[in-house]
Amino acid sequence: MGTENIILLVLVVVVVAIGLWSTVRHFRGKGGGCCGGGDYKPRKKKLSHVAGQKTFQVEGMHCEHCKVRVEEAVNDIKGAAGKVDLKKGLLTVSYAESLDDEQVKQKVERAGYHLTGTR
Fold it and tell me: Most exposed among 13, 30, 40, 118, judged by the fewest C-beta atoms under 10 Å?
């Protein structure tokens, strides 16, 4: 193996390592990319009482930043609080008063994601 091949191999290994490191940071919500990333801490919302819960399937969430955006979109609805299970792509909405599915759909889609159904 010549010196040129060794140098080329080292460069390829370094580029792959940097790519993997960047990808891991992105999916942890710490890098830039499609979702913005950052170390932003979401505001939590607790309801004084919960009348019920609904679970929705959401497409388009890839990282912690996506999760935060969906939760905050739902938290903007009066009397509702959202919690996302990123691995399953599920949004659970707790509500204190009656909740219109269409209102949840509009908020989530305005945030850039797609509600595909309820569970």
Answer: 13
Read off the DSSP letter of residue 78.
T
Prediction pTM value: 0.69
Give the SS3 label for residue 89: coil
Q: Rg of the chain over CA atoms, in angstroms?
A: 20
- Give the residue among 99, 97, 92, 94 at the shortest CA–CA distance from 46: 94
Residues near 54 by beta carbon (within 8 Å), at least 6 away in sequence: 92, 93, 95, 99, 101, 104, 118
Structural domain boundaries of the chain? 52-118
Taking the CA atoms of residue 54, residue 55, residue 60 and residue 62 in that order, the dihedral angle to the nearest 10 degrees is: 120
Residue that is written with structure tokens 């992105």 in the block: 26
CA distance 119 to 15: 43
Which run of H or E residues covers position 38? none
- Class at the top of the CATH hierarchy for domain 52-118: alpha beta
